[in-house]
Every structure is written in structure tokens, then in C-alpha cells.
């Protein structure tokens, strides 16, 4: 069934008194005043949320529907789009100093595991992945090794669905485990000081929840699989306004290029006469192919900055959001047939094809050819020796048996190349700017081969003593606020635990009284009292669960702030002591 993309607008608080827009939440409309051409412009969307709307209300009004659909087997995508500083990352990831400031990612995780816990008829397997697109290169934010050895490649299956080969997808069994990976991945994101945003994310990031659902008692029932993509796009910006230089200029050019092609894809999807959709122009559009025009239920949250000085970017964001409303997707339940007879049919077909291949090889005079999915270790060692001999002797040739043999040879070639790189002397190692991977815990972008000019904003924040002191003061304020929130949540857990124990004691007392010899009137009174006591226990227990979740979230937020501050300090020390 075709369904168009849902589009919501979120307006951040104005930083100046003179606002450049007027919103009408009842009519779901937004008007831009004194736009560059001199005329007012009015837009209407599925929802318009002003600056007074809380994080919880944003999730309930916009993103909750996508999470619910994923639990029923539909793919879902929530995408935040807008200029730098408009509030995209706050919407998706949330603040770190208050539990109420949790973003869509954390709230989706909480809702997902709450639904899984209440579903007694199905078993679930949940995996998470976190990928970053920085300067058109892919990075696995959940790969915490110093140098990522696995190459990430966007690939497409026979159904036209895209995935990333080599991307880690660890299994998570609890909400706490999923939040741990979310926070660790966010620590590895590429951010930088910016004239419009003190902590501007300089990359596109996609946090995904992969769910498989099976019925408990029916082994022949289908497996329902789905995926929820939570996309935080890097901010669009005008280079004339920001006046960035050096490495940040390169980042901005890559960001604007990918967002431009994203807009071209959206325009093409909205034009029914267009046959070709340019998904493969950039890594971002290639990854979002399913979310934009495939098997997915998609939501766009367009974030705008209401200051009049930002009207040109606000107009651009609202025009993109309008075009997005013309895009339609076709979401279906992802169900895989798991019947035993279907499995046997495929096994028999594989055996028959292997026999045919063996007969063909015999007629062709070839022997000892295997078509198993895995090659024996002895044969693998012989093939590696052949590869090394081939590299050493230009006149030597390699035998080619079948496709599996060719794929294995390519893999062995890659291993040899990687081993050669590791063994290379220091003077032959690539320059620091050639490495595109962050160090673990390093939240700053990779350095370029040449140091950025002194006037670049990111250098100023690291080298100027006054700005560094202001940054340290800001981090101290945030950390102290997070500590206070954590202490409050801890006291709330203690109080809720006390309420649970009191409710349990009341239930025990009423139950004991009911066991005695009672009259009808007294028994009826105690039955009602027992019912009220059980209701109070359930309320107290739910409050305790919420308080524990809040305490766990604030603990992780506090730890992330400490890790980020330590990483920034280590980076500054390394730069200040460098020759």
C-alpha cells in the first residue's frame, strides 16, 4: 500500500527577540515573514510544533507511530533535517543533563523493550547498528578498535534493498545494553566548534534497531523482521555566512553536496514522470534508498531556527519538507517463510545442482573441485601460498576453478595488502590526514594533512586560552547539572522502593486477615481493600521501574560527559605539546 511520507516541523527557541516566523499549531501552518524576496510565505504540514513542545510531546506526536509500526513488522525511518544549530541532534539524541530531555533514540529504545517485555506470545531478537557518514566515507561507531580493519560497503540485494557489508550489529537483550551502545557510539561521533553551534555534528549518522519476532509455540510460523532507522543529518549551511576555512570547509562541501543530492532524489521521487532516481550519487542517498522510496514508513522532522537572520535557511528547509510530502513509500510486513518443507526443498535443490556441477567438471577434465560454502584450511593455506608466489613472480598465473575460488583469492589478496600496510616502516606510513577513522573516544574530526589556518573556528576553541576556559566552564555546568539530576533520580528510586514495600506489606496483611473466620460484610470489605492494595502496588511498581530507568539514563549521561571532557582535554594536550 502506497503511503506518503509524514512531515512534521519543529521550531527551536528563538535566540533573539525579533522572530522571523509565525506558527499556527491548530492549522498546522508556518509563515515566514520578510523573506529574502520581500514577500511572506506560508506552508502547511502534517504537524507544526513550537518551541514550547517538550521532548516527550515530540516523540508522542511524531515518532511513536514509527516505533509501533516496527513492532508489527514494518520498516520505519525517522529523519531529522535542517540547518546547523536548528536542533536536529537535540531532537534525535536529546540533552544530557535531564531525563526529560531524552531524544527520540532513547525513547524508541525504551518503548521497544517495554513492548517486548509485555508480549508473552513472541520471542524477539534485537540488534543495533550505528553508522556515520563523514566526508563520503563510512565509519562503524560501534567498532571500538583503534583502527577499523573491516571495510564498510553499501550493497544491494536482488530485491533492491540496501545494506552495509561489514557493519557490526551486536545483539542487545535489555534496554540498558542498547542505551550503552547508543551512548558509546555518540561519543565517537565527529563534532566541531562552529559559529552557529558550539558542538556541531559534522557527519550524517544512522542509529538502527533490527528486530526479529517469532511465535513461542509454533516452530513453523514465519519470522517477522523489521528495522527502525533513526537518522540525524548534518546541518546544511551557507559558506558565505559561516566563512569556514581549511578542513571545516571540506566538511561543509561534502555535507552540502550530499544534502543537495538528497533533495534531487526527493524531487525525482515526487515527479511521476521520472524513471531514473539518482540514489547512487552519494553514500547518503544510497543508504537511504529504502527509506525514501522503498519498503518503509518514513517520517521527516524538519527543524527550523525562527530568527529573522536565518530566514533564507528556514525557507530552504521548509521547501525541502514540502517536496518530501510528495514522496510515497510502499511498506509491507517483512515475513520470512520458515516451514520445514520449504527448507527441505532448498536443501534438495542444492544437492541436485552440486551433482550437476560435478558431472560438468568430470566432462571438462577437472577434478578435486569443491562447491562447499567453506574451503578447508589445508586448501586455504595452499591458495595463500599461490597468491604470495604470484605476487613475487610476474610470470606466474593463478588457477581459477569457480566463483568461490575467485572470491577467496580476492580475500587473500586483501589480507596480504593489509599485512603489508601493518608491516610498513614509519616513514612509509600514511600521513595523519589520510586516516579517516577516529581514535576511540575522540569526538573531534580527523585532522587534515596540513594544519588548518589560525583563523579557523575549531583551532580557536582549542588554542585560545580564553575560549578554552569558557568551554571548561560550560562542561562543568553541564556535568554538575547531570550529577544533580542523577542524585535526584537516585533518591526517587529509594522512595519508590519504599512505597513498593509498604504496598506489599499491606497486601500481606489483608490476605492474612481474609484467612480468618469473618462475616460476610467484613469479608466483602477486605476483598475491596485487597483489590485497592494490589492496584496501589502496581502503581508503585511502575513508578519504581520508571525511576530506575531514569537513574540508569542519567548515570550514562554523566559518564558520557566525563568521557567527552577527558577526550577533549587529551586532544588539547596533544596539540599544545606538538612541535
Automatic annotation (TrEMBL):
Alphabetical keyword list: ATP-binding, Coiled coil, Microtubule, Motor protein, Nucleotide-binding
Superkingdom of this protein's organism: Eukaryota
Gene Ontology biological process: microtubule-based movement
Biased composition (Basic and acidic residues): 433-448
Pfam families: Kinesin
Region ranges (Disordered): 423-456
GO molecular function terms listed in the Swiss-Prot or TrEMBL record: ATP binding; microtubule binding; microtubule motor activity
SMART domains: KISc
Matches recorded under InterPro entries: Kinesin-like_fam, Kinesin_motor_CS, Kinesin_motor_dom, Kinesin_motor_dom_sf, P-loop_NTPase
Keyword Disulfide bond annotated: no
Cellular component GO terms held in the UniProt record: microtubule
Residues of the Kinesin motor domain: 4-327
Protein residues bound to ATP: 82-89
Family: Belongs to the TRAFAC class myosin-kinesin ATPase superfamily. Kinesin family.
Name used for this protein in its record: Kinesin-like protein
Amino acid at each position: 500500500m502506497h503511503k506518503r511520507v509524514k512531515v512534521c516541523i519543529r521550531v527551536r527557541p528563538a535566540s533573539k527577540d525579533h522572530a522571523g516566523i509565525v506558527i499556527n499549531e491548530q492549522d498546522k501552518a508556518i509563515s515566514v515573514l520578510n523573506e529574502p524576496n520581500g514577500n511572506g510565505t506560508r506552508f502547511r504540514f502534517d504537524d507544526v510544533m513550537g518551541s514550547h513542545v517538550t521532548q516527550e510531546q515530540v516523540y508522542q506526536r511524531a515518532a511513536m507511530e514509527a516505533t509501533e509500526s516496527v513492532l508489527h513488522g514494518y520498516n520505519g525511518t525517522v529523519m531529522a533535517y535542517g540547518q546547523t544549530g536548528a536542533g536536529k541532534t537535540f531532537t534525535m539524541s536529546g540533552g544530557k543533563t535531564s531525563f526529560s530531555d531524552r531524544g527520540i533514540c532513547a525513547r524508541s529504545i525504551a518503548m521497544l523493550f517495554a513492548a517486548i517485555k509485555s508480549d508473552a506470545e513472541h520471542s524477539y531478537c534485537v540488534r543495533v547498528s550505528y553508522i556515520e557518514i563523514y566526508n563520503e566515507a563510512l565509519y562503524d561507531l560501534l567498532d571500538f578498535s583503534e583502527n577499523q580493519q573491516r571495510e564498510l560497503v553499501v550493497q544491494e540485494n536482488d530485491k533492491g534493498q540496501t545494506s552495509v557489508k561489514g557493519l557490526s550489529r551486536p545483539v542487545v537483550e535489555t534496554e540498558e545494553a542498547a542505551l550503552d551502545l547508543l551512548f558509546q557510539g555518540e561519543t565517537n561521533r565527529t563534532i566541531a566548534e562552529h559559529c552557529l553551534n558550539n558542538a556541531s555534528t559534522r557527519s550524517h549518522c544512522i542509529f538502527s534497531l533490527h528486530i526479529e519476532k517469532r511465535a513461542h509455540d509454533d516452530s513453523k510460523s514465519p519470522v517477522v523482521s523489521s528495522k527502525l532507522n533513526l537518522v540525524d543529518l548534518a546541518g546544511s549551511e551557507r559558506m558565505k555566512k559561516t566563512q569556514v576555512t581549511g578542513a571545516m570547509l571540506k566538511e561543509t562541501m561534502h555535507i552540502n553536496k550530499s544534502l543537495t543530492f538528497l533533495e534531487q532524489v526527493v524531487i525525482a521521487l515526487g515527479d511521476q514522470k521520472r524513471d531514473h532516481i539518482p540514489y547512487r550519487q552519494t553514500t547518503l542517498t544510497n543508504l537511504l534508498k529504502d527509506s525514501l522510496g522503498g519498503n518503509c514508513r518514513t517520517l521527516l522532522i524538519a527543524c527550523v531556527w525562527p530568527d529573522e537572520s536565518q530566514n533564507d535557511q528556514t525557507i530552504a528547509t521548509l521547501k525541502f519538507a514540502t517536496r518530501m510530502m510528495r514522496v510515497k513509500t510502499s511498506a509491507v510486513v517483512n515475513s520470512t517463510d520458515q516451514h520445514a518443507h520449504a527448507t527441505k526443498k532448498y536443501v534438495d535443490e542444492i544437492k541436485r545442482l552440486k551433482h550437476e556441477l560435478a558431472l560438468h567438471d568430470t566432462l571438462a577434465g577437472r577434478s578435486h573441485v569443491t562447491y562447499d560454502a567453506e574451503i578447508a584450511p589445508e586448501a586455504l593455506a595452499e591458495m595463500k601460498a599461490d597468491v604470495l608466489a604470484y605476487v613475487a613472480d610476474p610470470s606466474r598465473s593463478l588457477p581459477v576453478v569457480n566463483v568461490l575460488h575467485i572470491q577467496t583469492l580476492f580475500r587473500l589478496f586483501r589480507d596480504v595488502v593489509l599485512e603489508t600496510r601493518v608491516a610498513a616502516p614509519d616513514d612509509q606510513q600514511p600521513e595523519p590526514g589520510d586516516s579517516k577513522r577516529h581514535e576511540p573516544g575522540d569526538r573531534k574530526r580527523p585532522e587534515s594533512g596540513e594544519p588548518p589556518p589560525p583563523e579557523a573556528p575549531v583551532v580557536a576553541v582549542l588554542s585560545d586560552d580564553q575560549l578554552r576556559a569558557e568551554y571548561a566552564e560550560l562542561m562543568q555546568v553541564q556535568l554538575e547539572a547531570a550529577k544533580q539530576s542523577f542524585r535526584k533520580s537516585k533518591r526517587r528510586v529509594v522512595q519508590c522502593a519504599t512505597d513498593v514495600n509498604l504496598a506489599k506489606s499491606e497486601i500481606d496483611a489483608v490476605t492474612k486477615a481474609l484467612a480468618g473466620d469473618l462475616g460476610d460484610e467484613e469479608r466483602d470489605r477486605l476483598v475491596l481493600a485487597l483489590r485497592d492494595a494490589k492496584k496501589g502496588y502496581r502503581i508503585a511498581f511502575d513508578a519504581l521501574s520508571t525511576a530506575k530507568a531514569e537513574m540508569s539514563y542519567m548515570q550514562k549521561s554523566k559518564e558520557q560527559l566525563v568521557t567527552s571532557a577527558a577526550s577533549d582535554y587529551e586532544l588539547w594536550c596533544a596539540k599544545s605539546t606538538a612541535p
